[in-house]
Design goal:
This protein is α/β, with parallel strands linked by helices. The protein is 34% helix and 17% strand. The strands form two sheets. Strands 1-11-10-4-9-5-8-7 form an eight-stranded mixed sheet, with helices on both faces. The chain has a three-stranded antiparallel sheet with strand order 2-3-6, with no helix packed on it. Strand 7 and strand 8 form a beta hairpin.
Length: 288
Amino acid sequence: MNTSSDVAAAALSDVVPGAGGEQSSVAADAGSGAERRDRQAGLTGATTYAGEPPFGQLPNQDAFRPDGASDGERPGYAFSRRLVCLSAPEGAAAASYRSLQTYLLARHIGDGRRGLALCSPKIGSGCTTVAVNLALACAQAGINTLLVDANLTRPAVHQFIAPADRVAGLAEMLTVDSAGRVDEIRRDIRPNLSVLFAGGLTLGAAGLIPQQRRFKDIMDACMRSFDFTIVDAPATGGATDARHVAMSVRYAMIVARRDVTLLADMKRTADELSSDRVKLAGSFLTDF
């Protein structure tokens, strides 16, 4: 029987070559140009619904209109250039996300596993970048995909796919009483791609997921309704939300950032998830 340390080591070594075979991780995020420009322009940092930019408004250098889109298409949403599968589909970064999608289709989705939580040891590892681009790559491959922003303290999916106005989401689904349960999933934002945003946040948002069985019920319903549900989880360092998210989805992948994430932190995260009986699908190394 594998110990948790054995499982952690296996998870960290369960990889496929990145685009061009240049990296040894599951796939290397080479699409770093927009991320670097954003950091230089001071556009990154704490990502909350109360912060800048406003809903539906991305920084000028970040806003992107997909080829063939007209003013009448995809109403109510703006797309970030960091969605490289849209903005630079021929680039190395997009190829790496497609490699990850192919890997998961063969070794995860193909085995009947319909959910995956993306976890990172600490904030700043690029977990949301990987989540939104992976979701888009899956959708482009014809997989009916749902992307869930389960980071209720630092939501960021809306900075990649920006609604025109504040939208209800996971927080509302967790807080309504049983008689008033609602579905806040935004369906078909792109072909085969639906999104459940974090929703309106409160000071007590950090405790919503661990305190309620409702979150697992929501995830179970999502995984029944969609071919693949990708959940952007909070960073695991010191947070119980991330572990509860992963336990509810039952499968997880660890996202790390080259030259930033420590191997010891990755092993700690893998050990924690394994001790929670979460099955690890591998790791993904970002490089930006």
